[in-house]
Write a structure and sequence with these properties.
Chain lengths: 289, 345
C-alpha cells in the first residue's frame, strides 16, 4: 500500500508580532519561529498506524522554503519511509488553489499508484482547511474530511469514522482516497532514538549544494540514503500560469494586526452595593431579567 | 469562470432532514444587503432529497431565486454528489458571489467546488463588504469587489482578501456572525429546478452508520453567555459558573484554557478555534482577554469582565469593569439578581 502524507511547517501562531507580514501582504516566514503543524502530526501518526497494521510505504511531502526540511527530518525520526521537499521560488505566494495544483503535480510525479493521501485538517497559520479537498478534486479522487479513526482497510476499501455537523459517521470508501485528519485524535509517537541518530545528519539537495560540501561528502550522504530530494518546478508538470502569486485567484488586499481599541468602560466596585447598582442598570437596559 | 458583473449573490443552503441550518439563513440576510449594494438579486442553492416547504422559507428569509437540486442521493451530505449539485447550480446561475457557512459541511464542500470551477475561495470570514481595489502594478482598478475579511495567524491579524479576476468570488462564513433577517412570509420568488444524475464514481463514499449528537449547547443563539476562564481555578469552581448561568438563564461559555484543563467540554469554547457568539450580554469570569478569545465574543452588545488583575487586557474592550475575585463577585451578582427578581414579582 502506498500512503502519502502532506505536512506543513507553520509559524507558531501563539507568538506573532506585527512584522509577520510583508508589504505585499504575504507572510514573512523568516521572522517567525516555526513548528510542525499540529494536525499534520496526527495525520502522520494515523498513516504510521496503518503501516503497522497492514504494511505500507509512507511518503511525506512538504511544500515550503528550504528550511522546511526540518519537519521532513522529524517525519523520518518518527517512521516515514521517504520524504520530499517541494520547493521553488516560483511557488512563492501561492494561495490554496495554486498550492493544491502544485502538490497534486508533485504527488503524480513522485508516488505512482498511491492508495491513500492524508493531510491534517487545517494548518494553524491560515486555518483554511482548503488544500486537502482541492487536491482531491484535482486528482479526481473522493475525499473524507475530519477523519477521527481508521476502522479497517481491506480489499481496496476503507472504513473510517469522521465528524459531521450532526455528530459522527462511519463511512466506507474505495481507495484511492484523500483523507483529512481531525486534530488531537491520536498521540503522535515521539522520535525513535535509532532513527534520530540515523537521520539527524540528513541533508536536502539544497544543503548538499552549499560550497562547503565536497563531492566526497555527497557520495557519503547518498550511499547512506541521507539525501532528502528536492522537487522543484522543473520536476513536475504544471502550467506556470496557475501557480505562485500571479496564478492565485485570491489576493490579500490589506492586513492589520489586532489592536485593542480602548472603549468607554464603566467601573463598578466589587462590593454588594456596586454589584446591585450594576444589575439594576442591566435590568433597566432590558439586557437581563 | 467567465466574469458576470451582474450575477446574483448566491448562498449554499445547508439542510438536515429538511430543516435549514441557521447559518444559511444568516447568510441570506447578509446576501440581501450585498445584493442591494450591487444592484442584483439573491439566489439560494438547495441540494436535498425533497425541497417541499423549504423553498417558501428561503423566500421569506431573502432569496429571490431558489435553485432546487432534488435527488435521493442528496439526502445526507457527501462531498462528491453535493459538489456536482452546487457546480451545476453555479453554471446555470453564473453568480458573482457564492457564500457557504463555515460548518464542517461547508468547509468540505466549498473548496471542492472552488477547485472544480477554478475560482478563489476564502475560509472562515467574519465580515463581508463591497469595495474597490486598485492593482498598482497592473494599473487597474476594480469596482465593487467582495472584501472577504477574516482573522488569520491564530487571530493575531485581520486580513482582507479579494478575488479580482477569477469569478465567482467565494467565501465560507462563520456561524453566528451575520444577522438573520425577520422572515417575511409574503415574499415570493422563483423556483428553478435542476436535474443531476450521479455515476458510481460520484457515489464512491457510502455512509454506513451515523451517531447523531444533539446539540446540547446553543451558544451562538444565546442572549446571555456566562464564560469562565483559567481564573476559575478548578473543576469544582467551574460548577459555580454553571450554576450562575442557570440562575440568570444564560448559556455557559469558556476560554480554551478552561477547556484544556478539562473543566468544561469543547463545545463551550468561545473564540478563534471555538464558536463565535453575539449575545446581548457576555460575562467573562477570570478570562484574560487574549486575541483568540476576543475574536469569538467582541460582537457582544455588552461585555462585563470580572478579573482580579486591574491590568488584564480584557478591560480594554469590556464595557463593564469589575476588579475583584470572581469567587466573591459571582455570589454577589446572584444575590443582586435574586433581589431584582423578587421585587419584580
Ligand atoms: C491558534 C490558537 C487558537 C486559540 N484559540 C482560542 C479560542 O478559540 N478561544 C480561547 O479562549 N483561547 C484560544 N487560544 C488560547 C489563548 O491564546 C489564551 O491562551 C486563552 O484564551 C487564555 O485563557 P484564559 O483567559 O482563561 O486564561 P489566562 O490567560 O491564564 O487568564 C486567566 C485570567 O484570570 C484572572 N484570574 C485569576 N484568578 C482570578 C480570580 N480568582 N478572580 C478573577 N480573576 C482571576 C487572571 O488575572 C487572568 O487574567 C488560542 C491560542 C492559539 C495559539
Amino acid at each position: 500500500m502506498e500512503i502519502v502524507v502532506l505536512v506543513k511547517q507553520v509559524p507558531d501562531t501563539a507568538n506573532v508580532g506585527a512584522d509577520a507580514m510583508k508589504e505585499d501582504g504575504t507572510v514573512n516566514r523568516a521572522a517567525l519561529k516555526t513548528v510542525f503543524n499540529p494536525d499534520d502530526l496526527n495525520a502522520l501518526e494515523m498513516a504510521l498506524e496503518i503501516k503497522e497494521r497492514y504494511g505500507a510505504n509512507v511518503s511525506v511531502i512538504t511544500m515550503g522554503p528550504p528550511k522546511a526540511v526540518e519537519i521532513l527530518k522529524e517525519s523520518l525520526y518518527r517512521g516515514a519511509d521517504k520524504v520530499y521537499l517541494l520547493s521553488d521560488p516560483k511557488f512563492a505566494g501561492s494561495d490554496t488553489l495554486a498550492t493544491s495544483l502544485i502538490l497534486k503535480s508533485a504527488i503524480e510525479a513522485k508516488v505512482k499508484n498511491f492508495d491513500i493521501i492524508m493531510a491534517g485538517r487545517q494548518a494553524i497559520d491560515g486555518d483554511t482547511a482548503q488544500v486537502g479537498p482541492q487536491i482531491a478534486e484535482k486528482l479526481n479522487v473522493p475525499q473524507v474530511t475530519f477523519v477521527t479513526d481508521v476502522e479497517e482497510v481491506k480489499n481496496g476499501k476503507m472504513r473510517l469514522s469522521r465528524l459531521s455537523d450532526e455528530g459522527t459517521e462511519i463511512v466506507e470508501c474505495k481507495t484511492p482516497v484523500l483523507l483529512t485528519v481531525e486534530g488531537g485524535v491520536n498521540n503522535p509517537r515521539p522520535p525513535r532514538v535509532k532513527r534520530l541518530l540515523k537521520y539527524v545528519n540528513a541533508m536536502s539537495s539544497f544543503q548538499m549544494n552549499e560550497d562547503w560540501v565536497t563531492d566526497e561528502d555527497v557520495e557519503y550522504l547518498k550511499k547512506r540514503e541521507l539525501e532528502i530530494p528536492v522537487i522543484s518546478f522543473c520536476d513536475i508538470v504544471v502550467n506556470p500560469e496557475y501557480i505562485g502569486l500571479a496564478g492565485s485567484p485570491t489576493r490579500v488586499k490589506e492586513i492589520h494586526s489586532v489592536v485593542f481599541k480602548s472603549i468607554e468602560t464603566k467601573d463598578y466596585p466589587a462590593n454588594q452595593d456596586g454589584i446591585n447598582n450594576m444589575m439594576k442598570e442591566l435590568v433597566s437596559e432590558h439586557i437581563i431579567g | 469562470m467567465e466574469k458576470n458583473k451582474y450575477g446574483h449573490v448566491a448562498v449554499f443552503i445547508q439542510q438536515h432532514n429538511s430543516k435549514i441550518e441557521a447559518v444559511s439563513l444568516e447568510l441570506l440576510g447578509r446576501a440581501t444587503e450585498l445584493a442591494k449594494e450591487l444592484d442584483t438579486k439573491v439566489s439560494a442553492y438547495l441540494p436535498c432529497e425533497k425541497a417541499g416547504e423549504m423553498t417558501k422559507a428561503l423566500f421569506s428569509y431573502g432569496a429571490d431565486y431558489v435553485y432546487t437540486i432534488e435527488n435521493k442521493e442528496l439526502k445526507d451530505f457527501r462531498s462528491l454528489p453535493y459538489t456536482k449539485a452546487v457546480v451545476e447550480a453555479v453554471k446555470k446561475d453564473a453568480p458573482c458571489i457564492v457564500l457557504f457557512g463555515a460548518t464542517r459541511t461547508g468547509r468540505d464542500l466549498a473548496p471542492r467546488v472552488a477547485s472544480t470551477i477554478r475560482s478563489g475561495l476564502t475560509a472562515d470570514c467574519t465580515e463581508l463588504k463591497i469595495g474597490s481595489y486598485t492593482d498598482n502594478k497592473a494599473g487597474k482598478t476594480y469596482e465593487k469587489l467582495l472584501y472577504q475579511i477574516r482573522p488569520a495567524f491564530g487571530g493575531n491579524i485581520i486580513a482582507t482578501i479579494i478575488n479580482p479576476e477569477w469569478h465567482p468570488q467565494m467565501a465560507t462564513v462563520r456561524e453566528g456572525v451575520m444577522k438573520m433577517r425577520e422572515p417575511n412570509t409574503s415574499r415570493k420568488g422563483e423556483v428553478i429546478p435542476i436535474n443531476v444524475t450521479f455515476s458510481d464514481v460520484d457515489l464512491a463514499v457510502k455512509i454506513i452508520d451515523k451517531v447523531i449528537k444533539e446539540k446540547k449547547v446553543n451558544l451562538t443563539g444565546a442572549n446571555i453567555v456566562v464564560a469562565g476562564g483559567m481564573g476559575v481555578g478548578s473543576k469544582d469552581c467551574f460548577c459555580k459558573i454553571n450554576e450562575f448561568a442557570k440562575i440568570i438563564n444564560a448559556e455557559v461559555g469558556a476560554s480554551r484554557a478552561a477547556v484544556d484543563q478539562g473543566w468544561v467540554s469543547k463545545e463551550h469554547q468561545v473564540g478563534q478555534t471555538g464558536v463565535t457568539v453575539r449575545p446581548k450580554l457576555y460575562i467573562a469570569c477570570g478570562i484574560s482577554g487574549s486575541v483568540q478569545h476576543k475574536a469569538g465574543m467582541d460582537q457582544a452588545l455588552k461585555i462585563i469582565a470580572i478579573n482580579s488583575d486591574p491590568e488584564a487586557p480584557i478591560f480594554k474592550f469590556a464595557h463593564v469593569k469589575i476588579v475583584g475575585d470572581l469567587n466573591t463577585v459571582i455570589p454577589m451578582m446572584i444575590e443582586a439578581y435574586k433581589k431584582i427578581d423578587v421585587s419584580k414579582k
